[in-house]
Amino acid sequence: MNRTIADLVPGPRERVRVFIENRRFERTITALIVANAITLGIETSPQFVARFGDVLYAFDRTVLGVFVVELLSRFFVHRRRFFHDPWRVFDFVVVGIALMPAGGAFAVLRALRVLRVLRLVSLVPSMRGVVGALLTALPGMASIVGLMALVLYVSAVMATKLFGTIAPELFGHLGASLFTLFQVMTVEGWPDIARGVMAQSRYAWVFFVIYLLIATFMVLNLFIAVVVNAMQAQVTEDLKGEGEAQTRLILDEVRALRREIEALRGQSQS
């Protein structure tokens, strides 16, 4: 019990952790991301680049420097656990791409600087929840994608056989039929396609109506159902996690108070 008050003073790592987890710091980083996204959009205008190119470049380098310092601070706090969080790994990859040389063979990486805007996903909890729900829904979506591909393939073979000679530019071969039926599935311009075929085949509307009912209204609604279920599960898990986090916070505060009491007792006894 020979602990002193100095033992209770947080070390450098704890001070950095408190600083980077502060809401003001996170809001500042978010504001910089938004501002950087705006400047990257402005850089697409030759007129603005001609007038303010140096300012835009300096701001871009400054923001990138802030992001690098932020990631180094997080690495200093979490050490090996830094890569245990997929969102921190995501930030690391996005900022790492921006640090690569953008000249010569890597000139395409200059356009990838806009990926820094995606860091909003890792900073905004609601966006993280949506992305988490979508990732959770991927296994269920795989079966629906397979079903949709099967429906599209069978329909394309039928359309090629039925309408290949009527509209060869749309259904002349399997590839053209696949592309045309994919366009029909998006409900984009399908009446024009159907009417063009119906001008020579009166009952072609039966094929298009059945295809739309199956491919668009049934299969796409299955997609929506899977995503909604995944988002509901994600919300339930987040609420449970918040409750556990609050409990851990209370326990940490109780332990800290207990350590302070023990330190004061040790001082009084000495």
Strand content: under 5%
**Measured distance between first and last alpha carbons:** 9 Å
Give the class from helix and strand content and strand pairing.
mainly alpha
Could you list the spans in which at least 5 consecutive residues all have pLDDT below 50?
A: 1-8
Tally of contiguous helical segments: 10
Q: What would the average pLDDT be, to the nearest integer?
A: 80
Number of folding domains? 2
Within CATH, the superfamily of the largest domain carries the name Voltage-gated potassium channels. Chain C
* Cα shape: elongated
Would you count the extended β strands for me? 0
CATH topology of the largest domain: Four Helix Bundle (Hemerythrin (Met), subunit A)
The succession of helices and strands, N to C, reads: HHHHHHHHHH
Largest sheet: none
Helix proportion of residues, in percent? over 70%
> What is the top-level CATH class of the largest domain?
Mainly Alpha
For the CA atoms, what is the radius of gyration? 29 Å
Describe the structure.
It is a single chain. By secondary structure, the chain is mainly α. 78% of the residues lie in helices and 0% in strands. It has two domains: 119 residues, Four Helix Bundle (Hemerythrin (Met), subunit A) (Up-down Bundle), CATH 1.20.120.350; 108 residues, Helix Hairpins. It contains ten helices and no strands. The chain is elongated, with a radius of gyration of 29 Å.
